[in-house]
Sequence to fold (412 residues):
Amino acid sequence: MQTFTIIFLSFLIASVLTRLWLSVRQINHIKQHRDAVPQAFAGKISLEDHQKAAEYSSTKVRLGRITLGWETLWLLIWTLGGGINLVDSWWNGFGLSTVWTGIAVILSVVLISALLDLPFSLYSTFVIEEKFGFNKMTLKIWLVDLVKSAALMLVIGVPLIALILWLMDQAGQYWWIYAWSVWTAFSLLMIWAYPAFIAPIFNKFTPLQDESLKSRIESLLTRCGFKSQGVFVVDGSRRSSHGNAYFSGFGRNKRIVFYDTLLNTLSENEVEAVLAHELGHFKRNHIKKSMLLSMIITLGGFALLAWLMQSDWFYASMNIQNPTTHSALILFMMILPIFTFFISPLFSALSRKHEFEADDFAKQQSDYKALISALVNMYRDNASTLTPDPVHSMFYDSHPPASIRIAHLESA
Fold:
């Protein structure tokens, strides 16, 4: 057995066992605290809502265990089981060019993987979300979304894959720098284009009509020195009763978006406070910092791939009999998460730090009590557990646990 095969299996087993251990911790911790609402939320969230959140969170964790087992099985089939090699050999029989063969192999693997994941998506949407009263999506909407996503992947993804594969084959020793430049430009383009051209394919965005709320928001934007293309309401209620708010895009294409479900449950003070938090991410340069970090990590990833694809042991250890640039790319994307899982707490910690900073900014620009009230409403309406396991949260949660976040807002 190849040395890297042993390393891969060791990390895979370690990551799977760690994920299972974290799931046990999460379920046990939630179960231990389900019979009483935490003191910080007493009188704000009922015991019934608290227990609903506990059951909802635990149910999703249990489904995650099954999904983990299924994904691990297919990762082994694709790699050591020779699945990638089988798909590659089949497409090679058509005599296509190197680039078009690579595109066909990558799309085949993506399509098969997507089909294998469909039962879990269906169960999550039409069983779990339905059971807890969140799902508003019909099977027709679900299927239309699926078709739209597939079409977007073909229209946008195929040219990108073709260009990167061509660079890997033809651009010489430093192809990875050119490929990183292309990927970075593509990412920036997608961030700019998403709010105006891609998101409207799936949802309807309408300008905020409430004049009183609109006036308060415009005043807040002026105080914060934030210019955007407008404040929009998205019809999130067509698919789910979950609520959220965000802003997307950059430059002149920035757009502030509220879910209609959120506006239906929050007061004007609370909406203003939530928006102040989102603006805090902008004013504290969190978006730019995250983009810069992503660019650095991606550059390192391309450099690592460039080294691995020149190593015969990389292919041999993953049962690839005919080494190609596209097989190297597929392998790299499949196995990388196994090795990066153990540093995920670092990224979660950075994200939580940004959330605290955005909350601090919101306290300066709005009523912090209104932000606390809005967060409590969102925790309740989204059935977010108030008592996550600290270690589980450290790995998975981009936002601070509810009690810690509220305590931070209430501090001087």
